[in-house]
Amino acid sequence: xxxxxxxxxxxxxxxxxxxxxxxxxxxxxxxxxxxxxxxxxxxxxxxxxxxxxxxxxxxxxxxxxxxxxxxxxxxxxxxxxxxxxxxxxxxxxxxxxxxxxxxxxxxxxxxxxxxxxxxxxxxxxxxxxxxxxxxxxxxxxxxxxxxxxxxxxxxxxxxxxxxxxxxxxxxxxxxxxxxxxxxxxxxxxxxxxxxxxxxxxxxxxxxxxxxxxxxxxxxxxxxxxxxxxxxxxxxxxxxxxxxxxxxxxxxxxxxxxxxxxxxxxxxx
Length: 268
Prior knowledge:
2 domains; 22% strand; 12 strands; Rossmann fold; Dihydrodipicolinate Reductase, domain 2; 268 residues; 4-stranded mixed β-sheet; alpha/beta
């Protein structure tokens, strides 16, 4: 783990107590250069610049670049100066190949050393869009995401040069925001490029977001037919990636769920 901002003491505390996920159930300890999770040592570095992280000392082969600061092939490749073989960027990238599991991951080639795993919203939307597009065809579509608060938002009103509304208090407002998720789907599903658009609302919930997709289909279908197609995919080729439920659930029921996307059939 590399984190230039916190000590291993604080890292242990943050792992043990979590507002959303609760208290960690295993054992934790630390020394100056490690945290120990259930007895397993994890080396901790404190570097600002990726090229200074001594990944080679720990024989690290794969790095997940999740700072949000190094999102291009050039900047993320700095990790590879110390023996790293592959870098996965946990955000959209302007030039790195983008992959969504269950959608286009089979197009990965061994000579791709820096790749993007897209955004959380894209990972939710793309599996659903793929199933509907493969089965019925999508002429055009509008995506709206109702998104839980993120770390970049303000707890109370404050300055936000990029997005004035984004600077308003996250706990007290429904805040319209932009999203690139719909366009990103066109990168991982080329046949949908230019066919989807979208918008986002940030709402005062701690975790779990929802994507609402409205689409015009090439081949008309009833809602029951659409549900059947998604249910079949969730049990077969997209098992573990796309989930399906008909229960009367709400957002907090999905906290901790590992699926990229869960289709709420009874909400339609």
